[in-house]
Amino acid sequence: TLARADEGLLDSALYWELRARALRALDRHEEAGEAAARGLGLDGQDTDLLRLRADALAELGGLAEAERVILGALALQPEDVELLCSYALIAARGDQVEKATRLAERAAALEPDSRRVEATRLVLAHLRGEGRRVREHARTLLAEAPDDAGSHYAAGFAESSHGRAGAAARHFHMAARLDPGDPDYASAARAARYAAHPLLWPLRPFEKLGAAGTWLLAMAVILTLQLSGLTVAAALAALAYVALCLYSWV
After folding, report:
1. What is the pLDDT of residues 106-165, one digit of tens each?
2. Widest CA span of the chain, in angstroms?
3. Environment class of residue 220 by beta-carbon count within 10 Å: exposed (0-12), middle (13-18) or buried (19+)?
4. Could you write out the three-class secondary structure of 131-165?
5. Burial call 199-210: b when 16+ CB within 10 Å, e when fewer
6. How high is the pLDDT of residue 153?
7. Measuring CA to CA, how many Å separate 229 from each of 158, 188, 239?
8. Closest to 21 in 3D by CA, of 64, 59, 55, 72
């Protein structure tokens, strides 16, 4: 629709903002950045366009330029929650997780009920390896908007990070059902369906504990049985663990 718009709209910064948003939603980040740049040529102090431009640059790997653009936007509106969250995610992409966390907490102090803030804190909790916090943020998002595709996507992400393939699949499928046009939701739903297949159930220990954790658990069980005098049971446990490893490789 925007591509077919009258040429008179090309002189509108709002037109380029809408176009940049649509292109970003399609993961066409280079074009989204170009659209935002066209809009900034008409209104260089539009903070929405500056944020869209910075987000596109970050997606394309231009973190230094993205930071410069977002800082320019924050100079105009230093307490804008959307800008602070975008800056936090840009910092996180550059492995500055502590800095990103400070920015997210600053945004939370300004607007504690913001869904954008909650989603940003979820991503940062995942990067810090705080699985429990990831689930807490996901539950908050889902409780606030149970019919929102993004809330279910966040809940699916939280469940999958804990190795709960079945629960993740349900949330990802719901996200795809609520917003069937989003390719990310559809892709996640397909991947989750495969992960929840019964043939993968025996591999749940690897998903939840990791390879090292599963090995430690197996060794603990085998040694306990051995020390208890249950030699045959210990041998069977060792064979079961080896079979599980072979199955995982297959």
Report:
1. 999 999 889 999 999 998 998 888 888 888 888 888 888 888 888 898 888 888 777 677
2. 86
3. exposed
4. HHHHHHHHHHHHHHCCCCHHHHHHHHHHHHHCCCH
5. eeeebebbbeee
6. 87
7. 42, 48, 17
8. 55
